[in-house]
Amino acid sequence: MGKINAARWILCGVIAGIIGDLVGTLVDGVLLASSWNAGLQRLGQPAMGSTQIVEYNVVGIFVGLVAIWIYAAIRPRFGAGPKTAIYAGLAVWVVGFLLPNISFMYVAHLYSRHLTLYTTLGDLVGCLLGTLVGAALYKEA
């Protein structure tokens, strides 16, 4: 098994994170903005501010880095390509979005079920699309 190409991993991870952030901005910042603001208001919190948006985007970059790191790590076992990228993206989505959203948003009833469902599905699209693009650009050597 070869070593992970660190420079390529970082580059492709950042690209994957940016793509995930763009999808998240479209889904959560445009399509679900009013639902998020209503949910925050119901919890007695102010509407999303620019500092929080920047912080979410930074987290999104780390999500992309983790997704491409997982892709690079499982690539020798599963082979390079979109199928392996989907496995990596799904792993990140399940651990990073699905389980936390179910436990904190759905079970604890912090936000509506519709908001939880739609944001979680948006996260799935962002994770898969970002990982697919980042994986397509990743090369071992």
Structure description:
The protein is mostly helical. The chain has 5 helices and no strands. The protein has helices spanning 6-31, 33-42, 50-78, 82-107, 113-137. The longest helix has 29 residues, at 50-78.
Search tags:
141 residues, mainly alpha, 5 helices, 0% strand, elongated
Contiguous runs where pLDDT drops below 50 for at least 5 residues: none
Beta content = under 5%
Structural class: mainly alpha
Total discrete domains:
1
Q: Order of helices and strands, N to C?
A: HHHHH
- What is the CA-based Rg, rounded? 16 Å
What is the overall pLDDT average?
95
- Major β-sheet profile: none
Count of separate DSSP helical elements:
5
Cα end-to-end separation: 13 Å
How many strand elements? 0
> In one word, what is the shape?
elongated
Query: What fraction, in percent, of the residue positions are helical?
Result: over 70%
